[in-house]
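Example: Protein-arginine rhamnosyltransferase.
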Amino acid sequence: MTVRWDIFCTVVDNFGDIGVTWRLARQLVAEHQCAVRLWVDDLRAFERLCPQIDITLCEQWQQGVQVCHWPESWPSTEAADVVIAAFACQLPSAYMDAMAERQTTPLWMNLDYLSAEDWVIGCHGLPSVKYKHVQKYFFFPGFREGTGGLLREAGLLERRRQFQQDAQAQRIFLEALGVQRTPGARLISLFAYENAGLASWFDAMVADPHASHVLIPEGRVLGDVQRWLGIDGLKAGAVHQRGALTVQVLPFVRQDQYDQLLWCCDFNAVRGEDSFVRAQWAGRPLLWHIYQQEEDVHLEKLEAFLRLYTHGLSEPAQKAISGLWRSWNAGQDMAEHWKMVDQQQQELLEHAQAWCLEQASRPDLAAALVKFYVNWL
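Written out as structure tokens, the predicted fold is:
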């Protein structure tokens, strides 16, 4: 019989939470033949990732997934075989009662945020709280053995390899976004939160002898770009050039298009969790803008990942990429660190490719979740 899954998502950070759960839901359907309901409280944010969504409907089917609006007044609904509370969201009390009333107790998991911290391995898969007789379990994505792995669809890296070896396919894709790539220019994608360090980074690229073309999907960082340019009303399609730097605003793209954008670029600046993982699958050097948390807890997560990611790099390359990440996440001057990264670009590229293959040698997150359920049975 088909295993029924309910995934609950509250949209906290615009696209990160829904981005992860939407990818997971589709993969469970396509690769593991699960029946998936995805409960989302903000269909408007979802619509940006999946333009086919009708935000007026309480229930609809998209790419094999039953998408349901998570209402304030919870309807009478039978609980699924597997229940995922994404990122510690609180399930409706009526649904928790429905879990407890099932003849066969469901598997209830909290799919937590991605982290490279050491303690994650010790907590992954452990029981958490109970509701009546229904036990909840921790499930942590991660970068090492003993965690749940990373989201990665079947054949993803082969599709990426073929695309990156096909100059014409890249040109056609970029032209569809209105991008005319300058021959010899370094292509950079920029998807970030607001950041005071952006002006110094752009200034460094303006004076750089190596031309750069920065592609910026519509998002929160546009306010900083506008201030740097000294203009208002920056929208998709805008192109501005200063010195060796060309800045271009792109429309917000679907997830599959965003993957291709990352694959086209020589360097990817990303934010949050979903784009962070996709940039790693791109096999290109990257810059992560981690989501800021109270009391700077996020900086501990940043350092934990840097320790893991930079292992094996030469000291100059390690110093360059770590300094760039720390400056970016502190909103500090980027110029010197960017110059150092440029000097180490070949080693950083080879390292990014090796890191990608290392991560791909482990089971992906969807497969790990399915295996956890099978073992739990």
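The CA atoms of residues 238 and 296 lie 35 Å apart.
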